[in-house]
């Protein structure tokens, strides 16, 4: 990076720490600029990080993926699993003064289900209606049992926005989101910063100890680290190669956590002209691609062995991981043989990758590995939101992407692989897989659900519309002045309890 640009970003980071006398500003670096700040629309992980400060949800999760109360204080299923009853937290106000109650929940769920711009429709398709029993009691009536619903309500579909404000703003709500979280939206400059101010009417205001949060997108991890060391940032995400410099600096802290976030290669198998190539059309070519990749070497070369190689969208050694399909070793001879059998010994395709140094390094290592098998892979570095726009239109052959992970397994599989999955960019569709996922949602019994997820793994690991690569580990660098930061496996930065000494 040019010295002038690095210096400029350092100066920007320092400027962001300047506020009114006595005010405390928490400065957080993001790896990319978030997409739309509307829970109905957003799909990026960094957007979820920002939402954690703006928009409380009906349900949250703890460090062990247990569901815990937030705007709902308790919940219960009916005997037939067709209704979910929630008791709501009294005395909650939205940031515009509107009252949070059962009618607000109903309005939010219906907005997610019906707004033309909503990307939550598939997640909530099992919800047939929402009934207001009284101001603090709401009932979800389902068309069929859906064990994944609590997990869905612990994410964007459970974020409560101010109903009147959302109705007036329509598809422009993201320009100035209004929710019921601890910080209210103040301003945004695209690719530069998002500023949030403490909401004095927050129901849990005693847990909030900073006055302002400033999020700054900085894709270059080395620039993030330089800003942290100079005092320009208070929290950054770390690359594994950054760990020695953090551990040796008494002015900084290292915070670690396991992660359900995984990286995958999404392959366009059926979405327009870009799918018309050997990789998109032939499962044998995709099998050869996987056989040419060594996940363990990838982990060692790029991540100093800190991450977890994986071939499934479920974290190993957790309840719904399928041990019958362990990570396959690299087999270069098999890859070459499969390509020969497919009649394309030198298939060519382009891999889209976000223009971050780490993602590009992963792409380059994969390029080198599969090149030994005969693949001709070109890398197209792309700004993150541009990448997402291209994939949604089917304007890609393959792309390196990550999913931040969900507490329920359905939220890690169906989004990519179900026929109507909202991130099924490549339009892969297998009715047998959809049937397995649907049956897994019918029961809350872990053993019965696991049987269906194993059945699903048999299908998607043979078809390979995705090549799952690894789970990351959450690695955060913070100023030593920061106390109370305890990230969960979802990697979100919850401001409750954090303070700067």
Radius of gyration: 23 Å
Strand content: 15-25%
Give the N-to-C terminal Cα separation. 33 Å
Query: Total number of β-strand segments?
Result: 19
Looking at the overall shape, the CATH architecture of the largest domain is Roll
CATH homologous superfamily descriptor of the largest domain: Dipeptide-binding Protein, Domain 3
Quaternary arrangement of the chains shown? single chain
Q: Helix fraction?
A: 25-40%
Highest-level CATH class of the largest domain: Alpha Beta
Mean residue pLDDT: 93
Strand pairing plus helix content: what structural class? alpha+beta
- Which regions are unreliable across 5 or more consecutive residues at pLDDT < 50? 1-21
What general form does the structure show? Answer: globular
Count of helices? 16
